[in-house]
Design brief:
Elements: E1 18-27, H1 28-31, H2 134-137, H3 146-149, H4 163-166, E2 177-182, H5 190-193, H6 214-219, H7 247-255, H8 269-276, E3 312-313, H9 329-338, E4 354-359, E5 365-366, H10 368-380, E6 385-388, E7 391-392, H11 397-408, E8 413-416, E9 434-441, E10 445-446, E11 449-450, E12 459-460, E13 470-475, H12 479-503, H13 525-534, E14 564-566, E15 570-572, H14 591-599, E16 606-609, E17 623-632
Parallel strand pairs: 2-4, 2-6, 3-4, 5-7, 6-8, 8-9, 9-13
Antiparallel strand pairs: 1-17, 9-12, 10-11, 14-15, 16-17
């Protein structure tokens, strides 16, 4: 819930599937969307991180505020070594889907295999767990430094966003698509190349080395575990590897300037674009013979886009979103969200989700209307999440409408706070309907020695912004951009699990909310925001540590100097407090708790202001009617 002025009243209905909209008249001086420190929506019972039973505080030391999720005391360490343990070796494109479907089972029954299982009582982690700092950014494990692990203010030393715990519920689904509006994609990125969403409406069935499609093989008596005609390999995912032996692709690429596939040693979407999406190719799909290249071309999909095989390039208006200047920002966003497990690079937070690359600029700087066109394309393409780590040079009505369009079809928009360590807003993230994230990070080190004392994981990153629209902070190193990518992947986990629960009849579809194609949607974008924000681990260094039996032997002073840091000279932290604050929002992202709440149907009610926008001006002599929307449909 985005809190507002104290005299703005939001009404919840107690009944299921009911919504109420209240227009509240307030004076203009308080009608702007202020964020009141400490205010929170009603949330499910806390089950976050290392929280144990609360211990009442002495009269002289007020306890942690009711409704926050900072632990009251720290349990004993479980000795988690925080290491890879899935038994695989990290190499190339990795394992996708991860974990793979058991042999002989339907690979599209994702509930049976698209989650991890504990290994020796600890979360299962892929072979590339430590790559790119994943072993602290994504971890539920606690640091071995007792100065941090015994301090509730440091969230008991939990290093990251507990993504490894979230994977025990879901590692994502290949039919969950995260659209990324950015600088485009570098096709030859091994951890991502098999994760690119392919539009089956723009592609014929894949063929094996003998030129046979799956339906043709079935006619010859070959048995498959599923009926998807595009799933030639039986993986449950339509990715570029389905075409790796396709003789049409090899014919076109061998005749091309590269004399082989674009990436040299493995196939990429660029090869499919050249084979099926270029009018110069003999296999150009929109004009192909349906008897030779089945199925028949169904027409433009999405509307207005003839050859949208693997995203779109709005900078050059082509069907190839390749990052031809090799800026790399969009590729990094794809890695953060979706990179494959067991690959040669880092693992993304949603290793089974697909990425839809949409090029809207040569870097992360873009025009507002190019972002808008990309966002509209994403929603019309069936994306589940819209991820943008942009800074647009303008704020346009079309951009605002595009975000509203995404929300109206159940597509949450994850937005970057930007990187200047300043309080100013960033466009388009300051528009209504976004979920804005910034970055917290670990203590820096030099020569293997940490520079901060205590060496914690909750320092506001030196390249992240803050302010009254921050939703949550995310454990990351590369500023707000990486925080956005990590959050986009976690949102993909939420979308994946909610779809699974809806298919199993354990979660009802959201009333009167559908995709552009008319399919039911499990969660509204506001519900997704509430899950992310209300489950966050509150960062609160203002409240003293509450003495208790479990930490009575700690060497920490009681209470400690809450904000003091030596780095390497004495300094102080940015201030945080119980509940909401402008530096860490509602707290640090806790993916494990989000998925645990969702699996138990613990979805907070919705509440949001309507069209009140940042920088909107009001006449201080006039009253203003503030539209407030609230719902409790679960």
């Amino acid at each position: 819930m985005h809190p507002g002025p104290s005299d703005t009243r939001t009404t919840y209905t107690g009944a299921r599937r009911r919504r109420v909209t209240v227009a509240v008249a307030v004076v203009a001086a308080v009608a702007v969307p202020l964020l009141v420190p400490g205010a929170r929506a009603a949330a499910p019972a806390a089950e976050t991180g290392p929280t144990v039973d609360a211990v009442p505080a002495p009269a002289a030391t007020p306890p942690v505020a009711v409704g926050t999720s900072r632990p009251a005391a720290c349990p004993a360490s479980n000795g988690d070594p925080n290491s890879a343990n899935d038994g695989a070796k990290a190499a190339g494109e990795g394992t996708f889907p991860w974990p793979p479907a058991p042999a002989g089972t339907d690979p599209e029954q994702y509930a049976t295999h698209a989650h991890t299982s504990a290994v020796g009582g600890l979360p299962e982690r892929p072979a590339n767990w430590a790559n790119g700092g994943g072993s602290w950014k994504l971890a539920s494990a606690r640091t071995t430094n007792t100065q941090v692990s015994e301090n509730p203010q440091e969230l008991c030393g939990v290093e990251g966003s507990a993504v490894d715990k979230a994977w025990e519920t879901s590692t994502g689904r290949p039919d969950t698509v995260i659209a990324i509006t950015d600088s485009g994609i570098e096709w030859c990125n091994a951890p991502v190349v098999d994760k690119i969403y392919l539009n089956r409406a723009a592609l014929p069935y894949p063929e094996n080395a003998q030129g046979l499609t799956k339906p043709q093989l079935e006619q010859q008596g070959v048995a498959f575990s599923d009926s998807n005609p595009y799933d030639l390999l039986g993986t449950g995912a339509l990715d570029v590897s389905q075409y790796r032996d396709d003789p049409r692709v090899h014919q076109v690429t061998q005749a091309g300037p590269s004399k082989g596939v674009f990436c040299g040693s493995y196939i990429s979407p660029e090869d499919l674009i050249r084979t099926f999406g270029s009018p110069a190719s003999p296999y150009y799909y929109p004009t192909s013979d349906p008897t030779a290249e089945p199925p028949a071309y169904p027409g433009q999909s999405p509307a207005g886009f003839t050859e949208a095989i693997a995203g779109w390039n709005f900078l050059d208006n082509t069907n190839d979103p390749y990052d031809d200047v090799l800026y790399g920002h969009g590729t990094g966003e794809a890695e953060d969200a979706t990179a494959a497990a067991d690959s040669s690079g880092e693992v993304g937070t949603c290793p089974n989700c697909m990425v839809l690359p949409i090029r809207v600029g040569e870097s992360f700087i873009a025009e507002g209307n190019d972002f808008a066109r990309g966002a509209l394309f994403a929603v019309d393409s069936g994306a589940s999440v819209l991820q943008e780590a942009l800074g647009t040079i303008d704020e346009t009505t079309t951009a605002a409408q595009a975000i509203a369009y995404a929300n109206a079809h159940g597509v949450p928009v994850i937005a970057s706070a930007a990187d200047e360590e300043a309080e100013h807003h960033n466009e388009p993230g300051n528009l209504p309907g976004t979920i804005v994230v910034n970055s917290v990070t670990q203590s820096p080190s030099e020569g293997g020695a940490t520079l901060d004392n205590p060496p914690g994981y909750l320092f506001l990153n030196g390249c992240t912004n803050y302010g009254g629209n921050i939703g949550v902070s995310v454990e990351s190193a590369s500023c707000s951009s990486e925080a956005t990518g990590k959050s986009g992947g976690v949102t993909g986990l939420v979308e994946s699990e909610s779809r699974t629960l809806m298919e199993e009849g354990r979660l009802s579809a959201y009333p009167r909310l559908t995709t552009v194609g008319g399919a039911p949607v499990a969660l509204s974008s506001t519900e997704v925001r509430e899950l992310i924000e209300m489950s966050a681990d509150d960062v609160d260094f203002a409240s003293a540590v509450v003495p208790s039996g479990s930490d009575a032997t700690t060497t920490l002073p009681e209470p400690p100097d809450n904000y003091a840091v030596v780095s390497p000279v004495p300094t102080t932290r940015y201030p945080t407090q119980p509940g909401y604050d402008t530096y860490t929002g509602y707290g640090r992202l806790d993916a494990g708790t989000i998925l645990a709440w969702l699996a138990k149907d613990k979805i907070p009610p919705e509440a949001s202001f309507g069209e009140m926008q940042w920088f909107q001006t009001y006449d201080p002599t006039q009253s203003v009617r503030v539209p407030v929307s609230a719902a409790a449909v679960r």
